Every structure is written in structure tokens, then in C-alpha cells.
Amino acid sequence: MQFFDSHAHYNDEKFNEDRFELIEKIYESGVTKLVNAGYSIESSKYALEIAKKYNWMYTISGISPNDIPEDGIGLANQLQELESFIHKNLNSRKIVAIGEIGLDYYWNKENIELQKKAFIEQIDLANKFNLPIVIHTREAVMDTLDVLKKHTVARKGVFHCCPLNRELVKEALKLGFYISFAGPVTFKNAKNANEIIEMVPIDRILIETDSPYLSPEPNRGKRNDSRNVKYIAEKIASVKQTSLEEIAEVTFGNACEIFEIH
Questions:
Q1: Residue 57, SS3 per DSSP
Q2: DSSP reduced 3-state for 139
Q3: Is 104:139 a contact under the CB 8 Å cutoff?
Q4: Domains (range + CATH), the chain
Q5: What radius of gyration do the chain's Cα atoms show?
Q6: pTM score, two decimals?
Q7: With contact defined as beta carbons under 8 Å apart, do 63 and 32 qualify?
Q8: Which residue among 167, 233, 239, 246 has the highest number of C-beta atoms inside a 10 angstrom radius?
Q9: b or e along 200-220 (b: 16 or more beta carbons within 10 Å of the residue's beta carbon)?
């Protein structure tokens, strides 16, 4: 049985002490494909550097809503640098999407228009490079959907660590996006988790850890890593009344399809 962790951050400083030793253990545990996610220029560069060391690891590059500069000039410069970086490295076939990008009003409501501009321009960048997008949205559901309805996304993509919001999931599926579930669906206090999992067809589900964050039960509160992705798969299998093996196989195939990994 093999697992595909579709979103993790081995570029994060929380892995500085044991990063490469841990990555070897992850592969040995049965996680044989993994996307190392960028969220800023520097983190995207380091994510790619790590991914290049392993033939089973891939990366996404982008500027998250929590990492955009404070003004339009700074954003324009960073977007130009991001485009140059992706163009330079696209032939490596390691960069499989633009992300994580989107809107986050939980941490910052002071720069909403700048967040939207960054989101839209990175959608345009994804279309230019014929890549899917990986979306981060937090307390910004309606604005996120509004952007996606007004701005064509050629290759669609994934709602990463998808909020357990009925309207978001319903509209995201209509728009052709995949839904990625992470540790919160396993939490004992997770509202709507079962209902939301039931809403998503099995051929549109991805699984992820978002490591080092959001450890699932039974490891909640500890540093997360990709070996825990099986607990998310177990939760989905339980709700869908199917086997862990089927969820592992289908989500593996779904991630390979959306990211064009062969």
C-alpha cells in the first residue's frame, strides 16, 4: 500500500534538525510520492532544492496571502521573480503547480485588495505555464469563490486543507477543483467533517498532512510529518465505508492526475 501526501512543508524550520533523516523514514513507511509546498519566494526555492534530491518528491511554487509584500511595487517585483524562477526550473518537471496561493482574512484583513491582486496574477501565471493551482483559503470563502468564478483557471487544481464549509465544497466541485483533506477531519471536535467527506466524490479527493502543522488524531499537538497521512485516509475510508487500501490507491491516482505525475 502506497500513499501520496499532496501537501507538506519540509522547507519549514521545524525540520531543521532531522529533515533528511526523516524524509528517508517517510519513504520507508510507504509514502512514496510527496509534494513539498512553497509559500514565498525563498520557501519555494528551498522546497525545490529539497525535492531535487528525491525522484519521488515534487514541489509547488507560489506566494501565499500571508507572505505577500506590504505594497503593490513589492508584490510586482516578487511576482516577476516568481515567474523567472518557475520559467528557469520548469523543465526539471519538479514544479507541478502554482501554490500555495489564495486569500486569508484570519491573519490579515488590512490588505484584502493586495491579496486578491496576488491571487489573480498567480492564476494568470499558472495559465501561462499550463499548471494547476493549489489554493489556501481561510475565512475568505465567498471572495475566494468570486475570484475563481471571474478568472478562468485553465488546469483547475486543489483546495488544500479544505475548510469544512458546505458552500465552499459544493461550489469548488462545480468549478472542477479537487478537495484535499488534512488532519482537522480527524479531530474529535471537527464540525461537518463526515458530511463534507460524504459530499466529495472519491475521484476528487486528495489527502495531505500540511506537515509540520495540523497533526491528526491520535498525534494531535505533536509535530506532524507525512507518516501521519494514513490517519486521514483511515478517516475517509471509515466515512465512505470502504477500505484503507482503496482510499490510498484512489487518492494516489487522483494526485498523479491533477499534478500530471507519471
A1: strand
A2: coil
A3: yes
A4: 3-258 (3.20.20.140)
A5: 17
A6: 0.97
A7: no
A8: 233
A9: beeebbbbbbbbbebbbbeeb
